[in-house]
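Section 5: illustrative case.
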C-alpha cells in the first residue's frame, strides 16, 4: 500500500475536477462521480507490471470512486520504482482515452507527483488488462477486510499482494516451460504455413521486409507505423449498395427496371416477419388488449407487403422466362409455407384467462416465405 501520510497530502492538494465522459459511459467514470460519505474507503486502485505483479507503494485507497487524482498517484509511484535504464513505458488502462488527455499537465501542477525526465510514455486502451486478473483473486478477501480498522486492513492487503507477487516469481519458470513445450508442438505446422505463404507471394517478401524494418525503427516516435501488422479486411457491401449495383446491372441488361427493388421488398417482408416473431416471444403468451391490437396491426401490414410482392411477382418473373403461365403455381396465401411458425389464435385469446399459459408456437401467424426462381438471380445479359 502507498504511504498514507504523503498520499493524503496529495489528495488534499489535488484538483478533483468532476470528470465529463467524452466517450462511452465507462463504469470507472461513473464510479468516480459517485459519493459515499459514510465510508472511509470505497475501493482500491493499483498499478501492475506486464508480468502481473503489484508494483510496491502503488496501491491506493479510493474515497469517492476511481478518480483521476487517485490513479495519478498510483501511476507516478510505479513509474518511479526501479525504472533505471528503461526509456519507454507503455501504460494500458481501460479508460485511457479519457485518462491520458491531461495526464502530464496534472503531474506538472502537483508538487507531489513526478515521473523520470527521460522516460517516454505510450498509452494503450485495453479492455480486461492484467490488473483485472489480480482483482479476481484479491476480491475474495473483501468480506474479511470490510470491517477491519484501516491499519489492520492495510496489513492484510499487503500480505496477500506480497504473496501474489511471490507466486508469480516462483511459478514463472514452470509456466514458461509449459508454454515452450506447446510452442514446440505447434512449430512444424506454423513452419509449413510460413513456407507456403512465402512460396505463394515471392515478390512480396522484399517489400514486407522493408515495411517491417521501417515500422520497427519508427515505432517509438510514431506508433501508427505498427499498423502494418493489423489485418486489413474489406467490409461487405451494405444492402443499399447491393441494391444500387443490381439496379445498374438491370439497366445495362435491358430497358426494364424495378427487379432489384422487388427483391429488396422480399427481404423487407422477412425482416418484418422476424420482428413480429420477436414481439410474440417477448410477451411469453401474456397478451393484453393493447398487445393484441399491436399484433393485429403488424400482421395486417405484413399481409399488405406480401400481397404487393405477390402481385408484382408475375411481371418480373415471366419477363425473363419462356415458362408458360399455367406452369407457375399461384400462391394464394403465403402463410401456408410457414405453418411451423404460425401462432395459435386460441392460445393468445386464452392468455386473458390464464397469465401462466404461454404461446406454444412462437411465430407471427403470417409467414413470408419468399421463393425467387434461380433463373432470375442468374439472368444473363441480353
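Designed sequence:
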Amino acid at each position: 500500500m502507498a504511504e498514507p501520510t504523503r498520499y493524503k497530502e496529495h489528495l488534499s492538494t489535488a484538483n478533483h475536477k468532476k470528470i465529463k465522459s467524452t466517450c462511452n459511459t465507462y463504469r470507472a467514470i461513473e464510479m468516480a462521480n459517485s459519493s459515499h460519505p459514510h465510508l472511509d474507503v470505497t475501493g482500491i486502485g493499483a498499478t501492475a507490471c506486464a508480468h502481473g505483479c503489484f508494483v510496491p507503494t502503488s496501491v491506493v485507497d479510493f474515497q469517492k470512486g476511481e478518480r483521476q487524482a487517485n490513479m495519478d498517484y498510483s501511476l507516478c509511484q510505479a513509474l518511479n520504482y526501479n525504472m533505471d535504464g528503461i526509456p519507454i513505458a507503455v501504460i494500458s488502462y481501460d479508460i485511457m482515452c479519457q485518462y491520458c488527455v491531461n495526464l502530464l499537465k496534472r503531474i506538472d501542477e502537483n508538487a507531489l507527483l513526478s515521473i523520470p525526465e527521460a522516460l517516454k510514455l505510450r498509452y494503450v486502451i485495453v479492455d480486461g488488462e492484467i490488473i483485472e486478473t489480480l482483482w479476481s483473486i484479491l476480491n475474495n478477501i473483501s468480506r474479511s477486510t470490510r470491517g477491519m480498522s484501516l491499519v489492520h486492513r492495510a496489513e492484510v492487503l499487503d500480505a496477500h499482494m506480497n504473496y501474489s507477487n511471490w507466486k508469480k516469481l516462483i511459478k514463472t519458470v514452470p509456466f514458461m516451460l509449459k508454454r515452450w513445450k506447446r510452442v514446440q508442438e505447434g512449430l512444424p505446422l506454423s513452419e509449413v504455413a510460413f513456407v507456403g505463404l512465402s512460396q505463394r507471394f515471392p515478390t512480396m517478401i522484399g517489400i514486407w521486409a522493408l515495411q517491417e524494418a521501417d515500422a520497427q525503427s519508427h515505432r517509438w516516435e510514431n506508433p501508427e507505423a505498427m499498423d502494418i501488422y493489423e489485418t486489413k479486411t474489406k467490409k461487405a457491401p451494405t444492402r443499399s449498395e447491393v441494391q444500387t449495383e443490381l439496379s445498374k446491372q438491370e439497366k445495362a441488361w435491358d430497358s426494364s427496371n424495378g427487379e432489384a427493388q422487388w427483391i429488396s421488398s422480399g427481404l423487407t417482408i422477412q425482416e418484418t416477419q422476424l420482428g413480429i416473431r420477436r414481439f410474440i416471444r417477448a410477451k411469453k403468451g401474456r397478451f393484453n388488449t393493447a398487445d393484441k391490437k399491436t399484433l393485429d396491426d403488424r400482421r395486417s401490414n405484413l399481409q399488405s407487403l406480401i400481397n404487393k410482392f405477390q402481385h408484382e411477382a408475375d411481371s418480373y418473373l415471366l419477363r425473363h422466362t419462356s415458362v408458360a403461365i399455367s406452369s407457375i403455381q399461384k400462391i394464394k396465401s403465403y402463410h401456408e409455407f410457414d405453418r411451423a411458425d404460425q401462432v395459435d389464435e386460441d392460445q393468445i385469446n386464452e392468455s386473458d384467462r390464464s397469465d401462466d399459459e404461454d404461446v406454444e408456437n412462437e411465430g407471427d401467424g403470417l409467414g413470408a416465405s419468399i421463393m425467387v426462381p434461380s433463373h432470375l438471380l442468374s439472368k444473363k445479359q441480353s
